[in-house]
Amino acid sequence: MSKTFFAEMLTRSEFDRANKRLEISICNASGERQTISISAAIAETLSSVLADHFQSHGTFGDLTKIPDNYAVGHGRHEPVVMLRFENEPAYGLTADQALDLGEALIDEVEAMTKVKYPARQ
Questions:
Q1: pLDDT for 15-32, tens place per residue?
Q2: For residue 27, which of 43, 55, 71, 118 is within the disulfide window of CB 3.0 to 4.6 Å?
């Protein structure tokens, strides 16, 4: 029996016109990569399963949400830094919270630049 491959990132997807199959490459946290080739029927079933799950649960565990836009500003009537992602209600942060958040973001960016992530194709 094969061992479960814990995919963390989709690195490539390409339609093989000759065989009429979708090839998808995925990799795990260690950078190991596997490619699967699926038929249109499997792709349709997988799409249906994912759609059903999202409709019934509203979320899929801890998927990372990457906003298309964000805004940073300040409160008009309160001494807070306002932080808003997409069309969600804004968060009001105290000056100390905003400074802590800024420092934490910088620390994470510095750490992230040192990690070698698999190249996306």
A1: 888 988 999 999 988 888
A2: 118
